[in-house]
Amino acid sequence: MATTTSTYRAVVRVGAAVAPVLGLFSPKLRTATQARTEAGDRLLEWARWHRDPSRPTVWFHAASVGEGLQAESVLSRFRRLRPECQAVYTHFSPSAEPLAARLPVDAADYLPYDFPAKVDRLLEALEPALLVFVKLDLWPELSTRAALSGTGVVMVAATVSRGSGRLRWPARELLEPGYRAVSRAAAISTEDATRLARLGVQPERILVLGDPRFDSVIERVAGVPAEDLLLRLGGGGATLVAGSTWPEDEQAILAAYARVRHRFPKARLILVPHEPTPQHLTQIERRAAALGLPEPTRLSVAEAPPPLLLVERVGILAQLYGAGTMAYVGGGFGRAGLHSVLEPAAWSLPVAFGPRWQNSRDASLLLNAGAAVALPLTRHAAARALHSTWEGWLGDDAGRQAQGRQAREIVESGMGASDRTAAMLDDLISQRRPQRSSHEARSAPL
């Protein structure tokens, strides 16, 4: 059975030591570092008082919100198939806390650091029948030691982008033992299956079951009531909703909006920054003023749909896309990656985004279907291209709506993966022999 290397363990120790220092410059990282330090103790406390050894436990791990939504879609179906199971959920990012709190699980917390001693104590206390990593956030120490303890290590919604750093040295060599310990992986496509095998997952253990995110976004859109007040924010004119934006996105968006208003003065913009910190919001307001745009109205004080709405809340983007007639998705100018294009597509909106979309399979599907537009790399060229696209949408309702229908069809064509993935987990639980609790194992006669 594969185990992690001394080099990997040294890297983890260094990372854990450096994280508090980096947290001095990043409130988000500081929150995550503090929470991860105590997460193992909280999970151990839950196991002490609430772990029922007569019931199998499934441990899900998803790094952040996007992966968590994929997990939620699978979890809800799995719980219907296996109501007797206990479920534990861990995450990495502070932004996932609200999602974790609403998931149908028995315990949720941050994932502790990937140290051997911490991992061993958790595995002994939780005794998971299955350890389920969502997407790609697999931790080698946890994976290998779970496999050694008899836990089935599973990946669901597994995807590896073409440009993933995990495919390159030295990350690939350091992480390989963890992927080699995987007993079953549900890839979202054949291309992802091939790249999973390159990471170390045994090819015969990989199934292609599709992406649960398609089910997730359809369900989220269907769950928004027609009387939701957020949906009214697009009234009074054709509205572009720009979601999960970063400063590079906002430069192009605001410059394009200033030009669009010359020909279409009733055009509206809802701007939803990815990180709506006070400093970021102030920068957006200053940039809008410099371009001669109407003063942005913040969501907290908006009484009627304004020309330019600035959203300072998180967690409501899925509803806000429903207020739009077209969409822009942020992240395509930075190295962190393009954010989800499926939510606006599920609302039947055509989508625009920045030039660095190549690692997004969903963006590729929309572009190939003619339901999306990718902007050029340079700031001025991007602003000009977005201006042209925006005016094209405003001047051609039928064409814009046709693009939106194509976007929705792409999402609908990917549905069903959550059911297939939950069925796979159900089958794996059926194959597991009942585990004795650690207490029973210690008290059993030799």
What this model shows, in words?
The chain is of the alpha/beta class. The chain folds into two domains: 6-210 and 416-432, 3-Deoxy-D-manno-octulosonic-acid transferase, N-terminal domain (Rossmann fold); 226-413, Rossmann fold (3-Layer(aba) Sandwich), CATH 3.40.50. It contains 18 helices and 14 strands. It has helices at 6-23, 27-50, 65-81, 97-102, 116-126, 140-148, 171-180, 190-199, 212-222, 247-263, 278-290, 317-320, 342-346, 361-368, 379-395, 397-413, 417-431, 438-443, and strands at residues 57-61, 86-91, 107-110, 128-134, 152-158, 184-187, 206-208, 239-245, 268-273, 297-298, 308-310, 326-329, 351-353, 372-374. Strands 3-2-1-4-5-6-7 form a seven-stranded parallel β-sheet, with helices on both faces. Strands 10-11-9-8-12-13-14 form a seven-stranded parallel β-sheet, with helices on both faces. Strand 5 (152-158), helix 7 and strand 6 (184-187) form a beta-alpha-beta unit. Helix 2 (27-50) packs parallel to helix 5 (116-126) and helix 6 (140-148) runs parallel beside helix 7 (171-180). It is globular. The two termini are 26 Å apart. Residues 436-446 have low confidence and may be disordered.
